[in-house]
Specification:
Length: 319
């Protein structure tokens, strides 16, 4: 049975539960009884030995961070990743980053063994100085012939793999050209691709216009309904080809586009809480992506910025 690791908000392990930072139960007394003191300047394998007891034979481990770009946390987390892969046979890293981005980046990494593709696919806060040892480690592991793979579970693009050069629409055109070229002439396919190329045209703009295009693509309710029907048709065609992973990716990205189309800049300026329903929908989509990955029996090292979507994933042992 394969196993995995999740990286999340709080770096705290317990044999019975994983408590998020917002939980009222997470008191100083609880931390005193459950926290393990680690030398953040020079963490050693000795510091990591508790993981063998705490993790045991679980398939998934969640790791976390108090906030983005916390250098000390990144440094220790890299050491934990090294220990879990070298000592406990974890070998897939799943980041809270674009499913499509990491799909492309992992292909490049497996071919070249260079970590630059993985770094490129991630959000900016994963590119700190303290994480350089992580990127060096995965290159060394690959060079030594030890398997390590990467995937993402976000419904949004996180890098130029998704945003630039019409990469996403070109991916589908190339895929179907190779798998079933007759679909390229189908009206549903051309209409679906027309929507995505319109979305991508916004991504190519610079400055404020480009930034806003990455945040949301406006759709009327009628357009959302039409686009969702086209997305369902595309998913059915992918299932016929046995492409379950790509089906999940497509539906997640499309539903993300629909969700973010509700974003209105003036509402965000007046009331930041207006963004909460959209973020909640994103969490639901990420949770669904996690369920899919678990059903595929992947070994997971999941890296997350919050625990909301994890709480919605049933059947996962939280440490």
């Amino acid at each position: 049975m394969k196993k995995g690791i999740l990286i999340s908000v709080l770096l705290a392990l317990s044999t019975t539960q994983f408590l998020v930072a917002q939980s009222p139960q997470l008191s100083n007394e609880w931390l005193s009884n459950h926290a393990q003191v680690i030398n953040t300047e020079l963490p050693s394998n000795k510091d990591m030995q508790l993981l063998k007891k705490e993790v045991g034979n679980k398939r998934i481990v969640f790791l976390g961070e108090a906030t983005h770009e916390d250098g000390a946390t990144f440094k220790v987390r890299t050491k934990i990743v090294e220990f879990l892969t070298e000592e406990m046979d974890f070998d897939v890293v799943l980041f809270e980053a674009g499913m499509f981005d990491l799909l492309q980046a992992n292909k490049e990494f497996q071919k070249t063994g260079k970590s630059e593709s993985i770094k490129k696919a991630l959000w900016g806060f994963w590119k700190t100085q303290q994480l350089q040892s992580f990127y060096s480690f995965i290159e060394q592991r690959k060079a030594a012939g030890n398997n390590i793979e990467f995937a993402g579970f976000d419904c949004k693009f996180s890098s130029s793999y998704g945003f630039d050069n019409n990469n996403y629409s070109r991916f589908w055109e190339t895929f179907f050209q190779e798998k079933n070229s007759a679909i390229l002439k189908n009206e549903n396919f051309t209409n679906y691709m027309a929507v995505w190329k319109d979305i991508e045209s916004g991504y190519q703009q610079t400055g404020m216009k480009g930034g806003l295009a990455k945040l949301r693509y406006k759709m009327s309710n009628k357009e959302k309904h039409s686009f969702r029907n086209l997305s369902i048709w595309m998913a059915d065609e992918l299932r016929k080809l046995g492409e379950n992973k790509l089906t999940q990716l497509l539906r997640s990205n499309d539903e993300g586009i629909i969700a973010y189309s509700k974003t209105r800049l003036w509402k965000l300026i007046l009331n930041k809480k207006s963004f909460l329903p959209i973020n909640n929908r994103r969490d639901e989509l990420m949770a669904d992506n996690l369920r899919h990955l678990l059903s595929e029996a992947l070994v997971l090292l999941l890296t997350m910025e919050n625990m909301v979507c994890l709480e919605k994933v049933k059947g996962v042992s939280l440490l």
